[in-house]
Write a structure and sequence with these properties.
It comes from Kocuria dechangensis. By secondary structure, the protein is of the alpha+beta class. About 35% of the residues lie in helices and about 30% in strands. Helix 1 runs antiparallel to helix 3.
């Protein structure tokens, strides 16, 4: 699994709720439709106006294949919310203790407990 981590700074920390609503209603459907998508986190620090987004990908190929599309989405979302992207880095996930939902491509039987 691989992760793409972006940090942002907003001139308007009080606008986070509107930005999070936009993330849930518009941005996530675009990201979730990308090949190899495994999950996402949005971390915010309202008092400083800084935030971090983390997206998780199946493998290095999925990370590379989504790089340009993710950049376009990231820049558009930042502009819409009045934020600016400070940095974006990519990592291999060395360890994760996350409940990963079943792979939807595996079919409905993958959702039932064994």
């Amino acid at each position: 699994m691989y992760a793409r981590i972006s940090t942002y700074e907003s001139g308007y920390p009080e606008d986070y709720d509107a930005g999070l609503a936009s993330l849930r209603e518009e941005v996530m459907s675009q990201i979730q439709g990308m090949p190899g998508y495994r999950g996402a986190l949005s971390l915010i620090e309202r008092s400083t106006g800084q935030s971090v987004s983390i997206t998780l990908w199946d493998d290095e190929d999925a990370l590379a294949a989504t790089r340009q599309g993710a950049e376009r989405i990231r820049e558009s979302a930042a502009a819409t919310s009045g934020s600016r992207v400070l940095s974006t880095v990519e990592y291999e996930v060395g360890y994760a203790d996350l409940p990963i939902p079943p792979d939807p491509a595996a079919g409905p039987e993958s959702a039932s407990p064994s």
